[in-house]
């Protein structure tokens, strides 16, 4: 009886997740901005190098 309740719970959770995915999928994605992300690349690269150096040194 306990296993049957667990299977029912899993089935209900899966059904709820499927319904939520369909609702989210129906929403339109906003258009990307026309600006370039090139200025974000340099600080991100520096932060990545700093994190790698910190990981190797300590």
Automatic annotation (TrEMBL):
This is Arabinogalactan peptide 12 like. It is found in: Endomembrane system; Membrane. Residues 1-26 form the signal peptide. It is a lipid-anchor; GPI-anchor. GO terms for cellular component: endomembrane system; side of membrane. Coiled coil: none annotated. It comes from the Eukaryota. Keywords: Glycoprotein, GPI-anchor, Hydroxylation, Lipoprotein, Membrane, Proteoglycan, Signal, Transmembrane, Transmembrane helix. The keyword Iron does not apply. The keyword Glycoprotein applies. Its main location: membrane. Belongs to the AG-peptide AGP family. InterPro entries: AGP3/12/13/14/21. The chain crosses the membrane at residues 36-57. It comes from Actinidia chinensis var. chinensis (Chinese soft-hair kiwi).
């Amino acid at each position: 009886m306990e296993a049957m309740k667990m299977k029912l719970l899993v089935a209900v959770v899966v059904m709820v997740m499927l319904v939520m995915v369909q609702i989210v999928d129906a929403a339109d994605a906003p258009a990307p901005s026309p600006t370039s992300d090139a200025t974000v690349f340099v600080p991100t690269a520096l932060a990545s190098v700093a994190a790698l150096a910190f990981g190797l040194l300590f």
